[in-house]
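Homework help board

Subject: predicted structure for assignment chain

Our instructor gave us this sequence and asked us to write out the predicted structure in token form, then describe one feature. I got the tokens but I'm not sure how to describe them. Can anyone check?
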Amino acid sequence: MTEPSLKASVPSAKAAVAEPTAVLSTEQLLPMYRMMFLIRRVEESLLELAESGKIGGAMHTAIGHEAAAVGMAAALRKEDYLTCTYRGHHHSLARGMDPKRAICEVLGKAPGFAKGKGGSMHFVDPSLGLMGANGIVGAQVPHAAGMALAAKIRGDDRIAITFFGDGAMYQGVMHETFNMAQKWKLPVIFYCENNRYSEMTPIARTSSVSDLYLFVRAYGMESMQIDGNDVEIVYDAISKAAARARAGEGPTFIEGITYRLAGHMAGDLETYRTPEEIEMQRAYEPLARLHQKLLDRGVSEEELNKIRAEVEEEVQEAVDYALEAPWPDIAEAYTDVYKA
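My token output:
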């Protein structure tokens, strides 16, 4: 499917330059479809909760980014390290986080993975290799490089992957990390989820280079641009980058072109783009792409409907559980606090 250009100021996913050489089986794609739909429904439910006043503070979704997370989870090992941005629900769920605990955490409830203290922007679960989301733009990137360095020193064959948006590319710490990672051949994958808007600003207004993967070529790093809405392409790219990292060949930078179907955060008025632009992108979003791919392979609509119905039930159960879950005891404000 060839995607039409959005507009002159926004690059199109058809510009992707890396194509997959491996094709996943239908049996592999069906659980990916289920997980992508689960992530979508959890995040849509969170948006509804935020708009009804049940979630306090900023809450960012990654609706339309699901292929990046699901492709990553399938390509890497559970023990590999992962860091991500404050827009990290999808990465966490794809790595196996319980939707009940995830929704409880966003609501600030006691059964959340951080007892309700981390909220939407600080998802973490070391048992899943998820070493933390970060509310500071770009701050999670050097953390991943540090974990990759530790893995290299220990020689334990673990690698690290870090996700960030296009807006993070202009943080100085990013380029310091790129240089260090390449110089030391660290086993780390840098994945840029380029949704074409840094918050509310089209990337063409902020970047002198329209293809972000070219930036790291200055450091001698292997890099590629891919269609980040196709889970097979994401899986293939990350699998190859992981193989390079484990072989001691150093880091890889992947620019996955995608599109954010919801606002920058809950409550975003979205005055910076038109409804027509968003609607046009719905034909190319990850779930629509994978849905059609499965139909083309002979999977029936009935089977896909069954998967979606099961997910709807699971997510509704998780939402109900979180709404009824207890709030943390006030004494919890004084626990898990670092003391110098």
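Reply (TA_rk): Your tokens look well-formed. For the description, you could write something like this. The chain has a mean pLDDT of 92. That's the kind of observation they're looking for.
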